[in-house]
Amino acid sequence: MSNVRFLMTQSLLAAWQYQYQAQDQEAAHRDFLKTLNREPIQPNKAMLDGIQFENMVTAYCEGNPPREDHEWLEGIKGVGDRVRGCQFQVAAYREIVVGKVPFLLYGRLDGLRAGNIFDIKFSRTYQPGKYLGSPQHPMYFCCVPEAKRFDYVVYTGSDVCVESYRPGEGEPAEQTVRQFMGYLEETGLAPVYIEKWRAK
């Protein structure tokens, strides 16, 4: 297995972490197991709204604004004006070794411009500091070591909020991966990860 690498994404780590924060922890655990098994998860309304909003922001930045009467018009403009000029949907990779195991970190950046990573969010439940413990910005800083700032640009349905992080803020990606693998070993789920997450 010396040539085998294992894929690691922030969405897998986030699904694992969410189990401990969710109001319905059993449902969150079921969703985590689906993610671990790489099964499709039925998107809920919040997820669908997030996808639609991000697509409309990208379209706005490319010269296709929404209708003037669209309920998200101000949010699309507010977020779009902050991320205008970005490269959108940038794939980023980084090989790391944790506990002698090789991993391929993979992230897809919503936007990248001049050393600034942007992540577009639609969250009606946003509170400042919501993403403090997220594995996303540490992993993306690891994948893009030249980046100087990571901005979560959040539309709440009424306001545009920006939550910014610098390199070194948040738990290092390597440490989160180590904890995650420890959890898999303790719960007997490591064989599932080993089978499903081999990097190509």
| Class computed from helices, strands and strand pairing | alpha/beta
Question: Over all CA atoms, what is the radius of gyration?
Answer: 18 Å
What about the largest sheet?
A: 6 strands, mixed
Tally of strands: 6
User: Total number of helical segments?
Assistant: 7
**Low-confidence residue ranges:** none
Inertia-based shape: globular
Look at the structure and give the mean pLDDT.
95
Provide the succession of SSEs.
EHHHHEEEHEEHH
Strand percentage lies at: 15-25%
Overview of this structure, please?
The chain has 7 helices and 6 strands. The protein has about 200 residues and is of the alpha/beta class. Strands 1, 2, 3, 4, 5 and 6 form a 6-stranded mixed beta sheet that branches. A hairpin with a 2-residue loop joins strand 2 (about 85-100) and strand 3. Helix 1 (about 10-20) runs antiparallel to helix 2 (about 25-35) and helix 3 crosses helix 4. The longest helix has 17 residues, at about 45-60.
Features:
200 residues, alpha/beta, globular
Brief synopsis:
It is built from seven helices and six strands. With 200 residues, the chain is of the alpha/beta class.
What's the topology here?
Blueprint: E1 6-9, H1 10-18, H2 25-36, H3 45-61, H4 73-83, E2 87-98, E3 101-113, E4 116-122, H5 136-143, E5 149-155, E6 160-165, H6 173-187, H7 190-196
Parallel strand pairs: 1-3, 4-5
Antiparallel strand pairs: 2-3, 3-4, 5-6
